[in-house]
Amino acid sequence: MSADTSPKNLDANPPVDGSELIRFDKVTKRFGSNVVLDELDFSVASGKHVTLIGPSGSGKTTILRLLMTLTSPDSGSIKVNGDYLTHEQRNGKLVPAGDKHIREVRKNIGMVFQQFNLFPNMKVLRNITEAPVTVLGLSKDEAEERARELLDMVGLGDRCDAYPTQLSGGQQQRVAIARALAMRPQVLLLDEVTSALDPELVAGVLDVLRDIARTTDITMLCVTHEMNFARDISDRVLMFDAGRVIESGSPDKMFTEPEHERTREFLSAVL
Amino acid sequence: MNWDWSAVGDFLPRFWDGVLTTLEAVALGSVISFAVGLVWAFAYRAPTRLVRWPVGVVTEFIRNTPLLVQLFFFYYVLPEWGIEFSALTTGILAIGVHYSTYTMQVYRAGIEAVPPGQWEAATALSLPTRRTWTAVILPQAIRRVVPALGNYVISMLKDTPMFIGIGVLEMLGQARLQGADTFRYVEPLTVVGVAFIVIAYPASLLVRALERRLVR
Ligand SMILES: Nc1ncnc2c1ncn2[C@@H]1O[C@H](COP(=O)(O)OP(=O)(O)O)[C@@H](O)[C@H]1O
Ligand SMILES: [Mg+2]
After folding, report:
1. B216 pLDDT exceeds 90?
2. Which of residues 159-198 of A touch B (CB under 8 A)?
3. Distance between CA atoms of residues B99 and B6, nearest Å
4. Residue B173 to residue B88: CA distance in whole angstroms
C-alpha cells in the first residue's frame, strides 16, 4: 500500500489492526515560499504513543497545530477517527470543512502547549471546569468533582483555589495537562511540554505523563527532546527532517541502531 | 489686586452648581466613550473591509479634529436636522463620542495584548467564539485597559471647560458668570483652578494605584 504514495515519505505507522485514529494524506503546508511539510503521509493507531523527534524547524509543531486546527494545510487531507478534519461530506461531495464540523472533530483532540497557556483570570479549578461545563454540558458539580480527581492525579489536589501565576512552571504545566484531560480526548498532543521549565521541575511533569501513558488508553502524539522519556513511553518514534519522516521504528531500534545518517547525527547531538 | 475671602463665599453657591455639572459631564461622557469605543473596537475587527474601512475613516476624522469644532457641530448643526438637545446633553454626547475614538484604541491595544496562546488554548478546548471572548479574552483585556481608560477620564475632565463655547455652565462657566456679575475674576477663577487640582490629582493617584495592581 505504500507503493502508490509519494516515494519521499515512508508510511510511518501502517495500521496493523485497522483502528487507525489519525491519518495524514499527502499533507503539504507552506509559509510563503517555505515548504514546511511536503506531501506528508503518516498515521497513528488508536491507543498508541508516538513521539516525533527531529531538529528545530523540521515541522513537528506544525503537525500538532494542524491536528488542533490552529492552522490549516495547503493541500492533502487529515483524518481523525475516520472523519476528515480538513473536509466534510456534503451532498456526497468532499468540500472544505465548515466551523461546525471542525468543532465536532476537534473535540476528540486535546493539546498541551510549551507555554502552558492557562487562563490567568481563572483559578486552577475553573481552568479545568470551564470547557467541560460550556462545551460538554457537564453540571458544575460533576465538572468540579472530575477536576479534583484530575488535580489529585497530577499531584495538585490542594491547589484548586490558586491562580495560575501563584504556581511554579511545573505546577502550571500539570494543571494544563489536567485541563486537557478533563475534555476526555481520544488523542493528547504534547508539544515540548517541558522545554519552558526550569530543569528541576521537568521530572515532575514527565512522571505525570508516564503515569497517564501507563494507566489510560489515550493516544499520545508527543514532540519532545527528552529522549529517555520518549524511550519509556513510545510505541513508535518518527524522525523528522525538513518536513518529512525520514525514519521510523520502535524506540529500541531508533535509539540503539538508527539506519539513517541524519537520525544518527541528530541523536548524537541531543543525547 | 487683593484677595477677598468674602468674594469666595459669594461664589460658592454657583460653584457647587458648576461642580455638579462638570462631574455629570465627566461621568456620563465617560460611560458613552467606554460603550461607543467598544463598539468601534469590535467593528474595526469585522472580517469585511466594507465595515473596517468606514469605521477607520470616521474615527480617524473624529480623533483628529478639535473637540470644540465637534461641540459646535453638535450644537449648531444637529438642530438643523431636527435633532435637538439641551446644551449640556449636547456637550456630553460630543465629548463622549470624541473620547470614544481614544477608548477604541485602548480597547484594541488591550485585546491585542492578550497573548495568542490564550486563543490557542481556547481553541484546543473547543470553547465557542463568544465564550472565548467573554470568559477568556475580555477579562484579561479589561485589566490592561482600566488604567488607560482612567487617564482619559482625567483628560476629559480637563476638557470640560470647552463646554463654555456652547453656553453650558460648568465650573468655568459659573466662574465667568460670577466675574461678569461682580467684576471680580480672581477669586472665582482661583477656586475653579484649585477645584480641578483637587479632583484630578487624587484621581491620577488612583489610576496609578490601579495600574500597579492590575497590569502585571
Ligand atoms: N506562523 C508561521 N509563519 C511563518 N513560518 C512559520 C510559522 N510557523 C512555523 N513556521 C516555520 O515552519 C517551519 C517549521 O516550524 P515548526 O513546525 O515550529 O518546527 P519544529 O516544531 O519542528 O521546530 C520553521 O521553518 C518555521 O520558521
Ligand atoms: Mg516546535
Report:
1. no
2. 165, 179-180, 183
3. 39
4. 12
Q: Is residue B215 part of a domain?
A: no
ipTM of the complex in this document: 0.89
Mean pLDDT of A89-95: 79
Report pLDDT digits (tens) over B169-205: 999 999 999 999 999 999 999 999 999 999 999 999 9
pLDDT reported for residue A86: 78
Which chain B residues are within 8 Å of A122, Cβ to Cβ? 135
Rounded Cα–Cα distance for residues A205 and A187 (Å): 18
Contact (CB, 8 A) for A169 and A197: yes
CATH number at residue B146: 1.10.3720.10
Residue A139 has pLDDT above 50, yes or no: yes
Domain tally, chain B: 1
What is the reported pLDDT for A5? 38
Residue B10 lies in a domain: no
pTM recorded for the entire structure: 0.84
Q: Are strands A20-31 and A75-80 parallel, antiparallel or unpaired?
A: antiparallel
Strands (E), chain A: 20-31, 34-45, 49-53, 75-80, 83-84, 87-90, 93-96, 109-112, 187-191, 219-223, 236-241, 244-249
Measured between beta carbons, which residues in chain A are less than 8 angstroms from residue B128?
A: 103, 134-135
Q: Is the CB of A126 under 6 A from ligand 1?
A: no
pLDDT at A104: 85
- Output the furthest CA–CA distance in chain A (Å, rounded): 56
- DSSP string of B165-193, one letter each residue: GGT--SHHHHHHHHHHHHS--HHHHHHHH
- Containing domain of residue B164, as a range? 20-170
How far apart (Å, rounded) are the C-alpha atoms in residues B45 and B37? 13
Is the pLDDT confidence value at A8 over 90?
no
